[in-house]
Amino acid sequence: MKKLSLFVFLMMVSVLLVACGNDKEEGNASNAATGDSKTTETAKKETTKPVEVEFWHAMNGDHEKWLEDAAVKFSEENENITVKLVNQGSYNDLSQKLLAAAKAKTSPTIAQAYAEWMTEYNANNLVVDLAPMINAENGFPADASYEDISEVFRNDNTFGDKVLGLPFNKSTRVLFYNKDYFEANGLTAPTTWDELAAAATTLTKEIDGKKVVGMGFENGLAHEISMWFEQAGGDFVDEKEGKVLFNTDAGLRALTFINTMLKDGSARMAGEDGYLSGPFTRGDVAMYIGSSAGLAYVAKDAGDMNWSTTPLPKDVEAAAPFQGTNITMFANSTEAEQAAAFEFMKYLITPENTVDWAKATGYLPVRESAQQGKDWLSFIEEYEAYQAGNAQYADGFIDVRLPGSYAMKNAISVELDKMLFEGATPAETLEAMSKKAQEALDQAK
């Protein structure tokens, strides 16, 4: 990958962010960026004096409250470390401010970041390789090892031989469904595309005086289209080669499946509702695919509706996208700040904390021991809707992390909308999507 000038990088990503609506001491920067960090044991000596870790994030509401409480508890247990939380608004706001801070050399110690952002930061030597800290003798405790982090999340943070972050708020897509509607019509939760389509057809009718549509697709369908291609037995993008792979029979099958339900009226887009959680909790839509992080929002609005979630129905293969941000460390921080920040990053994903976070927010535990531990299993046994996400780790995959990923998704969205709203055929759409997506990736090389 060619190294971008910082100016070109900043300009390029700033433009791409418009399309992405469905996120000190300079002398240490060079050594940190190339991974020449102290071992954890040695670096811990840097925290014997008071040090502040500045953490930029985009958490709000109950999510921010949990983070604030965690920061206070951490500081109480680590009296020389203060964590300064800075809420930067939305993810778009956060990304724009991180770019501006990088240009001004005023980056925070750590920040939430999607893997696509980290790709660009790494190309410009803006972030720290955590591998030396992780691999140090005392990098991670034995009862909460690095290898205990789910492979899908470790992969999301691994770039060649570098580790550029640790996972934080992670979610997957699940199928939300109205159990009352299903049971009244003798249906069970669908496990395949064929069952999904059949249930959507059966449930598209008037129920209890209400006009119901069987299936719903979120407006940001372009940002989860890789899921449909993977389930149809195809591939999305070769990340190593930067080559689009979805213009195949599998890709055509996926688009045709979606388009057929929309055309026959058994499915709808979110449209003016913005998100499908609203139509779902009103009973206007019988089922929809959405983020597991939306569980708390559905529960809040569902009232006495009998609802749940189920793993994503499969076609040729089971495939579940795992999404969400990581925490990355910026290279213009001091060694003392980096050592302290690494301790806080690990603290956020201890087995106890990652379960507590998942319970409070609807995100998923990032550790295998936590996912299979008594505390979490007891919780999801009581709250059935959380079980679907826990069942999908083995089928999980991560999003494309190439430079130009935002532009690629925007290009796909433009062409996909022509099928969703303007009558373009699936074949026409697939060809145009493939061409425009490849152009976007090539321009970013």
Describe the structure.
The protein contains 21 helices and 15 strands. It is α/β, with parallel strands linked by helices. The chain has 2 domains: 6-171 and 323-396, Periplasmic binding protein-like II (D-Maltodextrin-Binding Protein, domain 2), CATH 3.40.190.10; 173-321 and 400-443, D-Maltodextrin-Binding Protein, domain 2 (3-Layer(aba) Sandwich), CATH 3.40.190. The strands form 3 sheets. Strands 1, 2, 3, 6, 7, 8, 11, 12, 13, 14 and 15 form an 11-stranded mixed sheet that branches. A hairpin with a 2-residue loop joins strand 7 and strand 8. Helix 1 (6-17) runs antiparallel to helix 5. It is globular and about 65 Å long. Residues 1-45 have low confidence and may be disordered. This is ABC transporter substrate-binding protein. Residues 28-37 have a biased composition (Polar residues).
